[in-house]
Amino acid sequence: MSGAVKSYAAVDLGASSGxxxxxxxxxxxxxxxxxxxxxxxxxxxxxxLRWDILSLYGGVLDGLRAAGQVDSVGIDSWAxxxxxxxxxxxxxxxxxxxxxxxTEGVAEKVWATVPAPELYAATGLQYAPxxxxxxxxxxxxxxxxxxxxxxxxxTYWLTGExxxxxxxxxxxxxxxxxxxxxxxxxxxxxxINLELFAPLxxxxxxxxxLRPEVLEETGxxxxxxVTAVGSHDTxxxxxAVPASGERFAYICTGTWSLAGLELDAPVLTxxxxxxxxxxxxxxxxxxxxxxxxMGLWLLQECVRAWxxxxxxxxxxxxxxxxxxxxxxxxxxPVFLPPGRMPQRIAEAxxxxxxxxxxSPGEITRCILDSLALxxxxxxEEAQRLADRPVDVVHVVGGxxxxxxxxxxxxxxxxxxxxxxxxEAAALGNVLVQARAHGLVGDLAGGRELLTRTQPLTRYxxxxxxxxxxxxxxxxxxx
Length: 478
Hints:
By secondary structure, the chain is an alpha+beta fold. It has 18 helices and 21 strands. It is 38% helix and 21% strand.
């Protein structure tokens, strides 16, 4: 490995904002700084909800200009959505947002051809109405010659080269997680033409060089390679879990909580499908076996409804509120839409015969207790379904800033929680680039570097675990 320090631009796009981070990596160093942050504002057009992909691309270019000279660029983003191109490589309209209503009722049509248990056994993906498969069945594909998932589309505009990165492709419900290739049988039965997709790429593969026009606009001196990373942001975040060995669970926290295990093979049983676990592909032949939980969305919506009070004071009030007085099912679809979140939480408590939280502090405590309980259930069920015991839970992402949630998660799971890093997706993005260029070894080596260089906080479980079992039983009865 080279002893030099190199710089990598990590483009990390979320559902509400994007940013370009710069990671400086050496054999014994890893530093991350923010070069540019920009809004991601979907637009509601007469035909439906769309991503403003041109604004996002402009933000990427601005970020690369702010980043300065780098040795490589990598892009990760949310999953499932895509752009369609014509035969000349021109975009056929703004990509459709996964919350657009066009997929309503589509799943039932798909299941009439491929029953849900059979679909899960073939692809390992949990049901979500916005999975790419359902979008494609609903889409009007006339004139489309190519489909590029969002990070692959931006990579194409930067380099002129087309590819389909595997970790993101695994969220389309068109990949066989056992072969890590396309599920041709499923696609054929549903009339989906897999030739729309560009060839598959692995994390770490070269994805081209910045085009001369991009170099001119950003002020960078070429050649600057673009490297395929774990382009699904959760894949990058899991790559940045600072774990050793295999006996760990992870929770990627933010608007959503993604809780599960890293496995060597998928779990495709009917019991796993019924428990709503998904098998997505990760680095080095791994499988991200996880459950999607509503996450801090519940608190974010309450904070917005309360007029954005001081979060630190709100969490102090929550810490002083009675523990486990009232809990709700954090994955209940009733909490998915925006608006009236404090009232909906109160209504759920009232309907279940529990005390109704009134003050912002009480409602916040209800949310955090409920999230910790959902984390507990996901970690316990993942261990059972995968037959993989764990000794520690790693929490990464924005939720690591919430010390109360981290402590409650440790208490609920009855396991130590190691919190950090906060910028996991960007760090995982950077590590794959550094590895591709010889500065970092394998996945374990990158995690060891993270452990040595990133601030981590350990929370030991406290209190009586019977209280959490009782609260879980209360939810089951509801």
